[in-house]
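Forwarding these from the shared drive since the link keeps breaking.
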Amino acid sequence: MEQKEYEAVKASLKRELLGKLDCGQDFSDRQVQQMIDALLCGAGLAGKLEVAARRTMSRELFSSIRGLDVLQELLADENVTEIMVNGPDRIFVEKDGRLMRWEGRFESMARLQDVIQQIAAGCNRVVNEASPILDARLADGSRVNVVLSPVALNGPILTVRRFPREGMTLDRLVALGSLDEECRHFLELLVQCRYNIFISGGTGSGKTTFLNALSQAIPEQERIITIEDSAELQLKYAQNLVSLETRNANMEGCVPVTVRDLIRASLRMRPDRIIVGEVRGAEICELLTAYNSGHAGSMSTGHGNTARDMLLRMETMLLMGMDVPLSAIRRQIASGIDVLVHLGRLRDKSRKVLEIVEITGFSEGEIQTHTLYAFEEEGERSRERVTGRLVKKGDLVHVEKLEAAGLGQWA
């Protein structure tokens, strides 16, 4: 059977199935699957389609009714890390680190919009022409961004960022070459001794994944509060965990709840650690206030091209939320953050820790930094593969927290 005929048969069966479902009765997923199987058996496809093709059609019909339509196949493929939908018939995926166009398509613009509304409803969010931008998540934790018209000129734009189902660990990061065993031991020690750690990097550098892995070094008995725009962190090991998520205003008059609101609220919830998924603006004021008010061992992430650029961005974000002199802002950053870990995505698409920097203090009007580790390339340079290692550049200057934990200088 040619592809055109296959699609026509599938569309006809879908119309028949929708007619059976539109009877005011609730059907379970199992009942819907049984109805699909019965329709396929009665359609006389035994001589036209092989068994594998009939199974594929059955799966596609179920996904179009109860799943996320053509996206369901991509979500089932663990090698797909990013899905980019630029309208109903232009779908791109990132698979095994490579960006490619996918042959699948939505049957219509209306069906794509239905899937978007299904995703929004699943997170109790609203997206429409009045509020055309949405940050949400799927049931498996994948991050979703939606932009509708009139903001998106070439149709609804849907972007899905996926995370490993089994969760990333520091062991796996070492195995993948993102960091080495020495740095892994060092960072675990910093977490356990309650150093405040900030993770920076560009888009797609793996900040959230790294934060997930690093947080596993937090002792199980501690009370952890996570704060995010759209919940992505998966701290499955934590026993005493509180997960908070922002809320947007809507047409029903719901008051928006921002990251700043949640950080202030978290201070009254007896946290041992506060983990903010990402800071993008003035909420860094509350974050640094928490860092400087006895909530040691907290962590967060932010966008920055280098470790130094991240500090400059922090200054800008603080100026957005505080009317104080720049020197006071720099003092606040220097006293609040102990260590900055910078990640990067290299030309061969690998993600690595590029730099670990200690914030040593404030002097002569500037934030003083000290590089502990830096990634250096080795061998011949090529586009296909980047080889190198993290080279130790210095020892930790502020060892007070190590000493307070009874560990002294790390070894």
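-- next protein --
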Amino acid sequence: MKKQREEKFWSKFKEDKPAIFGLFTVVLLLFVAIYAPLIANGRPFLLLDRTTGEVSYPFLRYIFAPDSTETTIEIICNYFMLFLPLYGIIELIFHRAKLIKYLLLSVAAIALLIPFSISKSRIDKTDYRKLAEDKNLFAVFAVIPYGPYEQIAEPYEKPSKKHILGTDDIGRSLASRIIYGARISLSVGIFSSLIAMLIGSSIGLYIGYFKGKTDLFAMRIIEIISCFPTFLLLLILMALLKDNKIEQSVILIIPVIGLTSWVGLTLLVRGEVLKQSALPYIVSCKSLGIPLGSTLFRHLLPNVFSIVLISFAFSVAGAILAESSLSFLGFGVQQPCASWGGLLRQSFEDPLSYWHLTIFPGVALFLAVIGFNFAGEGVRRAMDSKG
């Protein structure tokens, strides 16, 4: 039965061309974000001295100890960059032996944490591109051989053969900064939406199940919270937290957006739970004295999860827009960290002259938002039993 539902879902989803486009866009952006160091990086993957035969890997150290102000996000993305290929190999070889597969995945997941925990960040200002000009050296660089923090040209250079998307206000590669900006935007969107999803679905389940005075009291509080302009509240909270001069601003943005965007999901889950609570299977759970936790999370939650999943996709798009808006106004991700909203801010003085700083980050932001919205809408249509 479950397999039939899955097959029906995917058959309906595949027929929805905007949904396929949205899913493809989301997967592409996630791939670019996770594998950003392999696409744009100023340190060579391999450096060979032809005279001595000495081989070094300058790139490798900065996978485990990134030299960034947003080290937490960088480490999380780098961790998945290494773990996903391992997961694919283990899944391919041991997909039928579930016990061995899960054991190996657990060992791999824990083992990967070790180099991240023991490696320490170190500033390396070596100009490897200039060093590689030596005929006695052989170097292998990324497709875009510039890091997101390197000043490698004149400010506001237009797109050229050397710098395909041009440079920003202090001469850093715009292509590299857009690629690394994907890490920030998608991390904020996904993690803040996860926070909102956990809070919203939990509260919605609880008040929808108990109804009565609990529901009445909770709804009055939710109505009061929903009266506050969300974006204004975000600005106030970020302005207050910014005074603490915390370097990792993304770690502040994620919970702030998550804690201010759960109300809509709560109302959706509550409404569905009110409907499900009147059905025979929930009445039977109450009659049989099944524990509350089991009733809520084992029986009710799976039947309202489609709403949670759809809302999550739309919430990610909203969170990406919120982060970009905050960064554009100067309250979000702080320099030198790359952010799509921050890049758009650099073109504010003269958008026509600095058109490359307007168009390219804007296109990236547009694709991210439309991708999650199309994918979410596709999931909603595929799950609609009437469709």
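The first helix runs from residue 2 to 14. The chain is about 70% helix and 5% strand.

- D.
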